[in-house]
């Protein structure tokens, strides 16, 4: 009897243990069939750059024998190279002189090799197509540049654009005339119009803060140069011209007075002659 009881208890214990083991294995996935994860399809051919920022990289500067500095750098946005930049400007500038600044941008092969697509709304001075970077980003083949400074009068003013093509290096030139002596900062902004997700946007260098350049203007500010003395004959002529009326009146007046004395002298002489003629012999 006792053996039957222990046998029944042992059967119950084994059944409970099997039930717990089966529950634990099922929760841990021990007996669950496994399969390889399915990879999500990648529909983007290239990563979209950080729209709104043009990076200026690999900056180098060289002092030239003609007194200018030539700065070279590379422009890019995200992983897309945009072109090579060359900027030339004077180190110093006399206050009374005017000098030029020259900017060259040679478009990169990465940019000009992008697939051209028709532009729905082409820009007025751009090519009638865009350069397709990926499904989200399309780039107009044009670059806008603008030079600004509080210390110089700049000609020409405002934004200026150039079409970017594979066989053409875009160039911009400005004339700078100093307003005052001292060190003056000049800012150069480069921007490219783009379309992102069907919306017109602009990528910009944000005034090119990565390439700060300063021009020192020499010369005294506010000093008036000493006047150059006029030649003697010129001064005499100027005095005669400015006092012509007064001189003319004086000459007329003095002429009348001299005539009066001459007439008085002649009259007296005639009286003496007549008086001698009347005396008896």
Helix content: 25-40%
Compute the number of helices. 4
- How many strands, which pairing sense, and closed or not: the largest β-sheet? 9 strands, mixed
C-alpha Rg, in Å? 48 Å
| Class derived from helix and strand content | alpha+beta
Average pLDDT, to the nearest integer?
75
Number of strands: 15
- Low-pLDDT parts are 29-46
Elements, N to C (H/E): HEEEEEHEEEEEEEEEEHH
- In percent, how much strand structure appears in the residues? 35-45%
Termini separation (Å)? Answer: 219 Å
Shape, please? rod-shaped
At a glance:
This protein is of the alpha+beta class and 281 residues long.
Write the layout of secondary structure elements.
Layout: H1 2-28, E1 55-63, E2 68-77, E3 80-90, E4 92-94, E5 99-107, H2 109-112, E6 115-118, E7 129-132, E8 137-139, E9 142-148, E10 152-155, E11 160-163, E12 170-178, E13 182-196, E14 199-204, E15 213-218, H3 232-242, H4 244-278
Q: How does this model look, in words?
A:
With 281 residues, this protein is of the alpha+beta class. The chain is built from four helices and 15 strands. The protein has helices at 2-28, 109-112, 232-242, 244-278, and strands spanning 55-63, 68-77, 80-90, 92-94, 99-107, 115-118, 129-132, 137-139, 142-148, 152-155, 160-163, 170-178, 182-196, 199-204, 213-218. Strands 4, 6, 7, 8, 9, 11, 13, 14 and 15 form a nine-stranded mixed sheet that branches. Strands 1-2-3-5-12-10 form a six-stranded antiparallel sheet. It is rod-shaped. The termini are far apart.
């Amino acid at each position: 009897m006792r053996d039957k009881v222990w046998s029944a208890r042992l059967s119950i214990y084994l059944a409970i243990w099997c039930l717990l083991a089966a529950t634990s294995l099922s929760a841990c996935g021990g007996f669950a069939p496994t399969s390889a994860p399915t990879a999500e399809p990648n529909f983007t051919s290239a990563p979209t750059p950080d729209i709104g920022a043009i990076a200026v990289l690999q900056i180098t500067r060289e002092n030239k024998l003609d007194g200018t500095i030539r700065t070279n750098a590379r422009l890019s946005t995200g992983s897309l190279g945009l072109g090579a930049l060359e900027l030339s400007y004077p180190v110093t500038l006399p206050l009374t002189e005017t000098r030029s600044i020259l900017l060259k941008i040679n478009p990169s092969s990465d940019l000009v090799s992008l697939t051209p697509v028709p532009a729905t709304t082409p820009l007025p001075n751009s090519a009638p197509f865009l350069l397709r970077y990926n499904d989200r980003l399309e780039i107009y083949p044009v670059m806008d540049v603008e030079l600004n400074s509080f210390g110089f009068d700049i000609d020409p003013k405002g934004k200026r654009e150039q079409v970017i093509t594979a066989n053409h290096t875009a160039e911009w030139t400005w004339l700078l005339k100093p307003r005052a002596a001292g060190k003056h900062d000049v800012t150069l902004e480069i921007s490219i119009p783009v379309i992102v997700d069907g919306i017109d946007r602009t990528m910009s260098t944000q005034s090119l803060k990565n390439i700060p350049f300063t021009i020192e203007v020499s010369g005294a500010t506010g000093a008036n140069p000493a006047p150059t003395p006029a030649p003697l004959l010129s001064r005499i002529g100027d005095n005669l011209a400015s006092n012509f009326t007064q001189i003319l009146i004086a000459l007329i007046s003095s002429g009348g007075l001299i005539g009066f004395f001459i007439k008085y002298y002649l009259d007296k002489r005639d009286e003496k002659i007549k008086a001698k003629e009347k005396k008896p012999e």
